[in-house]
Amino acid sequence: MSAMPPAGVDVRWLPSDYLDETIPDPLRQPSDWIVQLPDGRCALIPNDLDGDLDTPEGLPSALLRLADEDPSAITILTDGMVVKFSWTHSFGADTLLVAGDGRWTLASHGEQVPTVPGAVTLVCLTNDPDSLCEDPTTLVQEYPEEFELAANGERGAEVDLWCWSNKSVPMVYSRGEFHPAVQPAGGGA
To answer: Which superkingdom, per the lineage (predicted)?
Structure first.
């Protein structure tokens, strides 16, 4: 099974090592994570872009300074280097409705959770990323107080739905860009 997203699915990319409790915004292409330093080398934009890098000198110069001070703080890219990426697709916001018997439906998708082949769909309450769950049933069970009772007896809450690739995609850095790594015959990872 390929780890690449299906054709025609709008995805964003994030270095797999950056997947954590809090993540930077995924970018349109893996190569968008590359920044050219003033000395001509290229680096992977770091996960922790904190105030130390928010300087008038600009990101490339700040990263070059950081690389000189602490070489382990950033990843300098060299031709042939492999960086693993994960992709994500947003299904957007929806309303999760819960009937009195506990059955749920999504206002835009019915009783089916949207999926993309090769990915795991996730759901959380809108504006509450700590409520992340792998399915609406778990979300309803873990956060029942968040579902407001409607006049028709259903309870509802606004949720965000998206999916993440269930495998990392190895990308090879070459001449300022990332390209999918060629998998050996037999699909080895």
So the answer is: Bacteria
Q: Per residue in 36-91, pLDDT tens? A: 888 888 999 887 665 444 454 567 777 777 777 877 778 999 999 999 999 999 99
Q: Is the pTM of this model over 0.70?
A: yes
pLDDT greater at residue 64 or residue 181: 181
DSSP symbol at 17: G
DSSP 28: S
Got the DSSP string for 128-175? EEEEEESSHHHHHHH-GGGSEEPTTS-EEEEEEEEEEESS-EEEEEET
Q: Looking at residue 63, what DSSP letter applies?
A: H
- Amino acid at the residue 111: E
Burial of 4 (0-12, 13-18, 19+ CB in 10 A): middle
Query: For residue 84, which of 180, 188, 184 has the smallest C-alpha distance?
Result: 180
| Distance (Å) of CA 4 to CA 66, 73, 133, 182, 183 | 33, 29, 24, 12, 11
State both tokens at 45. 């934009």
> CA 83 to CA 170: how far, in whole Å?
6
> In this predicted structure, what is the pLDDT of residue 86?
95
3-state secondary structure of 112: coil
